[in-house]
Specification:
Largest sheet: none
Radius of gyration: 19 Å
Distance between the termini: 31 Å
Shape: flat
Strand content: under 5%
Number of helices: 5
Order of helices and strands: HHHHH
């Protein structure tokens, strides 16, 4: 059985978010170090910046691992992917609402929220349920 197009869409969305999350962790540290070198106020204390960066990198590794393990059809993978997508969808919605409140609505962020919501919809749908509830063939081991 092959992966459906909608699940491939979800995996691409999660993989892109994993790359963006890993890059975000690096950017937080880089910006903090740059401000420190120029004698400016840090965007956050350095310990907090490292915590945020490590959290971002851990989330990115978790997302990439789940994308890689999708072929094994483990039910927990679907749950983790759904939680990660829900977290990202909430974050993008908050980002859009923040831009709306500031008077400069960001339509790209709204578009990303729509993509995240569609991916989340697929993860809670029957296609994902059927894919992740069936195990692949059992590994064969030589008898002897």
């Amino acid at each position: 059985m092959r992966l459906s197009g909608s699940l491939v869409f979800v995996l691409v969305v999660v993989a892109v978010h994993a790359v963006g999350t890993a890059l975000g962790g690096w950017v937080v540290l880089d910006e903090n170090y740059s401000k420190q070198e120029h004698g400016q106020d840090l965007i956050m204390p350095m310990d907090m910046a490292w915590f945020v960066a490590l959290l971002c990198w851990g989330l990115a590794v978790l997302q990439a691992t789940c994308v890689a393990l999708t072929g094994r059809r483990r039910p927990w993978t679907r749950s983790v992917l759904a939680v990660c997508l829900a977290f990202v969808a909430c974050s993008t919605l908050i980002g859009f609402l923040g831009s709306l409140v500031s008077g400069a609505p960001s339509l790209p962020v709204l578009l990303i929220f729509g993509i995240d919501a569609a991916a989340l919809w697929v993860m809670f749908g029957t296609t994902a349920h059927r894919w992740f509830s069936v195990r692949g063939p059992a590994p064969t081991s030589p008898r002897g």
